[in-house]
């Protein structure tokens, strides 16, 4: 049975604007260019529709202007059409010279790109340079797309470098625009004084165009007590959980372990929590007859649960809901991850959201807990680290209290036979069985979680390319991102056991080696330097090296990136960023983001 809870919104449309030389005259300059110009638009549309998708797995919607745009009236006609079509992102394409200020996208609310054909028959590159300068002069940043090699006028191919820029612009723009109007739902408030769980509503509204919804944790209890959930769904979910979620060992001393009756009751409690939080986030039409208000939900694309300590000192923890809501499937089969941040770390939950919107894959919430140097590993275990870990002189221990997405057990493989965290719509029933088999649910540490509950436990025992992300807020500076590409690390079983037992052995465990540069003073000199420069106690990790897409998305949202290890040739931001400096790209990013400000309104 498919998940019926749906969001309202989150499907931004791309509009293609074919612009053209407006001159008619005796030689009909415009007429000679109509077919070539429209052909560029159609090729871009086909590329986007073939390669881009929304986070729910559906194909991206792309529309082309009904007419080519040579003068301002046609710009207005296109704007009216795009308004009807709900266009949030525009790509202007041309092979020739056009009248820049008359043909450009002047809507301050759209995300803009311009593709000028690199050919010698007509000056498409001249128009590109001119109109990008006009965009900059008017304070409307736009991405410039221009191929390295000259093409013939009748060449219908999109060169590889142009395709890469088009797709990076498209992916990042869709991810950024897909957040508009949707909600972050915080259940509870600040967890144990963690700064990331201090809600800054102005930030979400100004930079992301999102709204903030808040409910007290007691709402979960009210819905349990009053039976405000789908009882048939609960019975189905509980039966599936009992059949598929293996209970692991209980690490607690005998005298504080929960008895069997209590443990069974806590399974029922946590499954009800899961259903109720799903309903709170996205509503549930099955509740409409008896509970029409509760059936609506908060239209939340992500959220967080406070938990510690007011909740967990008495009630079972939220690890089961947090883990499964961030996973690519549940008792109803595969479905888009909801995203529920542990400890209501809003800033880390938003990182998970960015990663999921860009890739369609689940993202892993973790503590960035410990740096293990090569010497420390050898001293404790006798093992000499290898591969990426050796290159980085160690690795980071990513671990959290049972709330990581189960996909990161790393047991699925892609078409090439290599380990992969799949896009959620590619998850098979066999994949789900493997993930569940690799995971146990261990009774919670009753010293930390007096109310009990269960923690998911797995080991990421394979090497995969991953990207770790963190969003931070600094008073007087504002938001910034940190990005670290690297690999999960596979260690021998005996080494895993020794190192894992140095912390909580019942929590999911991932070892991470960032890609380093060995440059003294660099934040990526070694894995130790990454740990030392990381901005908070949490990080969000996604499969693949997607840092370049994250940098492009951040520039759209006007969030600077303070630390990253992305090759310079992969960095792609609006053309006007170069006006803020070409030597110090990181500093230029901060200056540009500050100058243009958030997309939606002034921050503070």
TrEMBL record:
Residues engaged in binding Mn(2+): 343, 367, 538
Catalytic activity reported: L-fucose = L-fuculose
Cellular component annotations (GO), alphabetically ordered: cytoplasm
Record Gene3D superfamilies: 3.40.50.1070, L-fucose Isomerase, Chain A, domain 2 (3.40.275.10), L-fucose/L-arabinose isomerase, C-terminal (3.20.14.10)
Positions of the L-fucose isomerase C-terminal domain: 398-564
Annotated EC: 5.3.1.25
Key word Metal-binding present: yes
Residue span(s) of domain L-fucose isomerase N-terminal-1: 12-181
Alphabetical keyword list: Carbohydrate metabolism, Cytoplasm, Fucose metabolism, Isomerase, Manganese, Metal-binding
SUPFAM superfamilies xref list: FucI/AraA C-terminal domain-like, FucI/AraA N-terminal and middle domains
Predominant place of localization: cytoplasm
Location of the L-fucose isomerase N-terminal-2 domain: 183-360
Function statement: Converts the aldose L-fucose into the corresponding ketose L-fuculose.
Protein name: L-fucose isomerase
Species of the source: Shuttleworthella satelles DSM 14600
This protein's encoding gene: fucI
